[in-house]
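From the methods appendix. Each design record in this collection lists the tokenized structure first, followed by the designed amino acid sequence. Records were kept in a plain field format so they could be parsed without special tools. The example shown here is representative of the layout used throughout.

RECORD:
FOLD TOKENS (452 positions):
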């Protein structure tokens, strides 16, 4: 529930369980049953309670498989957008909302969640905790840098425990403010702060499940003994979940990290240099990130599970804007992860091509993953591309790509005329902190009552 460790670092489990011996017996499990089997290896929640939390979390999804796999040409598309807000973040955040509520009731505590979003995390987090007792949520998004539908999914939620903040800056500014506030331990303790961002380990754990689920489905379908995944990523959380799955023993030949023009991660896995730069606004806004908060989790393993080496590397990055990791003895940066970039033009071309050839619509983020995956296709290791959002969330990009107004969903269409509520604040930590304190004073503890 704390998200960040007290020294400002990230939390990881003390060990990663090896599950190769369980793979055959897990292959036919439903998504909720598989989630219980994987999560119970890490969770300190009684199994019966965990099963209840998982069952309630995925009862809100619109597809019986939760995360179905579709064959599209010579690839397999893992659809992660069948939750309440039509984005992959629902898979973790529906679970996290129920876990938070369970723990808070058990311990008779309250929680103030502070989150930063580049698009989909905010609406999924809000949906996961709206109307829940003992919880308030403050969500920062970069003003004008999320899609209009993503913004409306957040700001049309008027529950008394939900507070949206449009920050006059970039997503990296939002992340910086959040980390600064969490580093003030007196403030964090006084106001019981927690986070739902991908820095929260429980969220990463929930995402590990769909790698197993998809791999089992595709291996049964094709007879293959291993798979590959292409993952559009900006904050390194989604692909890090796949990295954990591989370390647990899931037979993953390759994890393909796909970025847009904000290519700090792609450059690292090609050169070993992790160096920030200006944020470029693109048609895949959830990936418009230059400082990937989960990257230091990967560094822990890449640097020999040495916390001191991670601290030194992160200090170097904070001081100079660059950190460098030498290649392994075999000359590779990593034995599992490779990387590539999909530009805006390539993304639009991929959306158009996949729709023209197969009648299937990709959202811009998913299209980046499909484009970057193409050079890595192998008959013996089927390619699974993560579809991270419903295309209707990015209707203008779909229209630019296809020339047609094809991307709609009734949930999103219904948002157009709803009232909104959102505070607009400068990208300054002091202003965000003051706003949070004002709302905590003025709003009741019970989420069921109307806040200011």
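DESIGN:
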């Amino acid at each position: 529930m704390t998200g960040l460790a007290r020294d400002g670092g990230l939390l990881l489990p003390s060990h990663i369980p090896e599950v190769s011996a369980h793979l055959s017996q897990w292959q036919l499990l439903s998504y909720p049953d598989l989630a219980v089997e994987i999560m119970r290896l890490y969770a300190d929640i009684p199994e019966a309670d965990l099963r209840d939390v998982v069952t309630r979390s995925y009862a809100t999804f619109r597809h019986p498989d939760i995360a179905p796999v579709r064959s599209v040409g010579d690839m397999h598309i893992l659809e992660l957008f069948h939750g309440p807000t039509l984005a992959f973040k629902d898979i973790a955040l529906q679970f996290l909302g129920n876990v938070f509520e369970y723990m808070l009731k058990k311990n008779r505590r309250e929680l103030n969640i502070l989150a930063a979003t580049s698009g989909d995390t905010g609406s999924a987090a809000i949906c996961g905790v709206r109307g829940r007792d003992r919880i308030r949520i403050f969500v920062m998004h970069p003003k004008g840098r999320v899609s209009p539908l993503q913004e409306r999914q957040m700001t049309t939620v008027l529950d008394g425990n939900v507070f949206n903040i449009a920050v006059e800056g970039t997503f990296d500014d939002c992340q910086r403010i959040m980390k600064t506030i969490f580093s003030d331990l007196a403030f964090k303790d006084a106001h019981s702060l927690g986070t739902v961002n991908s820095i929260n380990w429980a969220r990463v754990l929930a995402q590990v499940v769909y790698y197993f689920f998809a791999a089992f489905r595709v291996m049964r379908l094709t007879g293959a003994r291993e798979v590959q995944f292409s993952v559009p990523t900006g904050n390194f959380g989604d692909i890090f979940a796949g990295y954990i799955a591989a370390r647990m023993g899931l037979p993953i030949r390759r994890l393909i990290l796909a970025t847009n023009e904000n290519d700090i991660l792609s450059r690292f896995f090609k050169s070993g240099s992790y160096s920030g730069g200006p944020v470029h606004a693109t048609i895949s806004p959830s990936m418009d990130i230059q400082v990937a908060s989960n990257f230091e989790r990967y560094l822990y393993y890449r640097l020999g599970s040495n916390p001191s080496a991670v601290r030194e590397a992160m200090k170097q990055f904070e001081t100079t804007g660059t950190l460098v990791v030498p290649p392994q003895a075999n000359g590779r940066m990593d034995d599992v992860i490779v990387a590539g970039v999909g530009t805006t033009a390539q993304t639009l071309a991929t959306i158009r091509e996949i729709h023209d050839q197969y009648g299937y619509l990709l959202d811009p983020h998913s299209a980046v993953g499909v484009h970057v995956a193409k050079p890595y296709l192998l008959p013996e290791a089927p390619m699974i591309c993560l579809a991270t959002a419903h295309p209707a969330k990015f209707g203008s990009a779909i229209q630019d790509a296809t020339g047609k107004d094809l991307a709609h969903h009734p949930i999103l269409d219904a948002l157009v005329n709803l009232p909104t509520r959102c505070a607009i604040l400068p990208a300054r930590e002091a202003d965000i902190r003051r706003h949070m304190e004002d709302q905590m004073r003025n709003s009741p503890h019970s989420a069921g009552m109307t806040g200011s």
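APPENDIX NOTE: The chain has 18 helices and 13 strands.
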